[in-house]
Specification:
Keywords: Coiled coil. With 137 residues, the protein is an alpha+beta fold. It is built from 5 helices and 5 strands, in the order ααββαβααββ. It is globular, with a radius of gyration of 15 Å. The N terminus is likely disordered.
Length: 137
């Protein structure tokens, strides 16, 4: 699933009359734009320090037990909290199964150009790649 599909996805209705609800991912895009420089700095640090060649950032609105907190929505008055992690931690915790390691690495986009974000919403979770340069001159 790509970023466009996620951003324009509509949540399933539970028998209520169809109302147009804004996807929470619209606010995520706004926050990622706001956080982009800080996230890129952390990604470069993770790679330069030899921690991992594959940084992964977790975007969530609740609490998660993976990665390290880098951007707290409460402190920054935003909608999403971001935690920094790595491909290796995702494999170790079983989020990426051993069988999926190769396919994941084949589609992993250049971390200097894209942030790899594991987005967690009540309906589930998925990876998206968000470009750092979006909307920048």
């Amino acid at each position: 699933m790509d970023r466009e599909e996620l951003l324009h996805a509509t949540p399933e209705e539970d028998g209520e009359p169809q109302k147009k609800r804004e996807s929470p991912l619209v606010s995520l895009e706004k926050d990622l734009e706001f956080y982009a420089d800080a996230i890129k700095e952390v990604a470069i640090e993770i790679m330069v320090e030899g921690i991992s060649a594959y940084p992964i950032f977790i975007a969530h609105q609740h609490e998660v037990n993976i990665g390290e907190l880098i951007l707290n929505k409460e402190e920054l008055n935003t909608e999403w909290t971001i935690q920094a992690s790595t491909f290796e931690e995702f494999v170790e915790k079983g989020i990426i199964s051993k069988e999926k390691k190769e396919p994941f690495l084949k589609v992993y986009k250049k971390p200097e150009d894209f942030m790899c974000v594991f987005v967690i919403v009540p309906e589930g979770a998925n990876f998206i790649y968000y470009p750092y340069k979006k909307g920048r001159k």
